[in-house]
């Protein structure tokens, strides 16, 4: 997604780190770069607004629910894989291996 105009911070960088921005998990200087980008780029601002609305909806609807420990472990494991640059695996690496099928 891009508006087609050049920006100091590229649209792909903003969209790749959108949740870090939403969760305020980045340094203030990075947040400022993103805020400037949103002022200049309406497609990215729209995507930001949509993701912010989804995040608020999930919090409102599920905020008081306890998260199962195994689900939390799976999510954190995938986040660690993505942050280490390995991407998301095709199959669930946290699941127990499937039993061999008889032929």
From TrEMBL:
Q: Which domain of life is it from?
A: Bacteria
Concerning InterPro entries, the annotation shows: Anit_sigma_mycothiol_RsrA, Znf_put
Putative zinc-finger domain mapped to chain residues: 11-44
- Protein name as annotated: Mycothiol system anti-sigma-R factor
Gene from which the chain derives: rsrA
């Amino acid at each position: 997604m891009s508006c087609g105009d050049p920006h100091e911070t590229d649209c792909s960088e903003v969209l790749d780190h959108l949740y870090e921005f939403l969760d305020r998990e980045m340094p203030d200087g990075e947040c400022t770069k993103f805020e400037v980008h949103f002022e200049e780029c309406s497609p990215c601002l729209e995507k930001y607004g949509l993701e912010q609305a989804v995040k608020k909806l999930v919090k409102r609807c599920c905020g008081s629910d306890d998260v199962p420990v195994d689900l939390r472990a799976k999510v954190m494991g995938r986040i660690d894989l993505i942050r280490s640059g390995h991407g998301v695996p095709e199959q669930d690496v946290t699941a127990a291996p499937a039993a061999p099928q008889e032929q």
